[in-house]
Amino acid sequence: MADADQPGSGETTLQSVQEAQRRCTRCVDAGYLATSNPVFSGHVGQRILLVGQAPGPVENDSTRPFAGRAGRQLMRWFERGGFAGEADVRRRVYMTSMTTCFPGRTVDGRGDRRPSSREVALCSGWLDTILGLLAPRLVMPIGSLALARFLPGRRLDDVVGRLFDASGAVVEAPGVVPVVLPLLLPLPHPSGQSRWLNDPARVRQLDSALSRLAPLIGWSESG
Ligand code: SF4
To answer: What residues does each domain of the chain span?
Structure first.
């Protein structure tokens, strides 16, 4: 890969980073993927960042993040959390994932393959660069893989329904005390493959997380 395709090696604007990311073939070069097709969306000025696990086949075909069944469920959650609908979410939220190319199906064909730690490492530079350029005030990690990036060592059971700052400290409400930005509002993965929400107590945790979202939207965009 040419140096110009390396995140952080000269791209100074979000648009140029996105263009370079769209050309990325790291996982192809490393033998993990047959082809690359990075999926993400967003623009300068968005202060809310959504980080999922990886695109699925629908996202891969449409090159539109969170466009499949799990994404539609996530949009319904966000509507409950204060957004006016999917178009409002897409207008206000930068959307990416721990690896931005579809990893393919599992060997048994019953779901999408979870990206390996090596693939996550290969893609992490793009996420780091986006974080630096966007300077989001709110990050929503979706599922355990994204959670491990932002709150390492924590379990979904311990974090869904709570708000954290970037140091991992629990935050009661934005603006109450000085915090290390961005704030972090973890959510479970909305995929039907995930059984995390089969427990009613965890559904209540999700309800609690969504109830915290509405004030965070306006706060994120006010700074
Ligand atoms: S998943 Fe990330 S690192 Fe791998 S080829 Fe796609 S954009 Fe590049």
So the answer is: 3-222
